[in-house]
Amino acid sequence: MDVFKIILQVLLGLTSLLLILLVLLHKGRGGGMSDMFGGGMTSNLNASGVAERNLNRLTIGMGLVWGAIVIALGLIMRFSAES
Predict the structure, then answer these.
(1) Which residues lie below 8 Å from residue 17, measured CB to CB, with a gap of 6+?
(2) What is the DSSP letter of 59?
(3) How far apart are CA 47 and CA 59, in angstroms?
(4) How many CB atoms lie within 10 A of CB 2?
(5) What does the pLDDT average to over 35-58?
(6) Are the CB atoms for 72 and 8 separated by under 8 Å?
(7) How many CB atoms lie within 10 A of CB 69?
(8) DSSP secondary structure letter of residue 28
(9) What is the DSSP letter of 1?
(10) What pLDDT, in 10s, does the model give residues 51-77?
(11) What pTM was computed for the model?
């Protein structure tokens, strides 16, 4: 069980770094803090191209994998502590 936990921890680290990279690859939409208070109006809220849509899909998929690994690690740590 310890080997499986180590493998999941390594996968969590790799997917975390990849998820950060994928989020940073997205095109910025808006002016930051000024948009939060109504200073800027952005009309282009949809993904503009095929590459952006594929990047969105890849980011969502990687986020789901990351979440599944976090849940699996949590379950392993919870049930290994009780036994």
Answers:
(1) none
(2) H
(3) 13
(4) 8
(5) 72
(6) yes
(7) 19
(8) P
(9) -
(10) 899 999 999 999 999 999 999 999 999
(11) 0.74
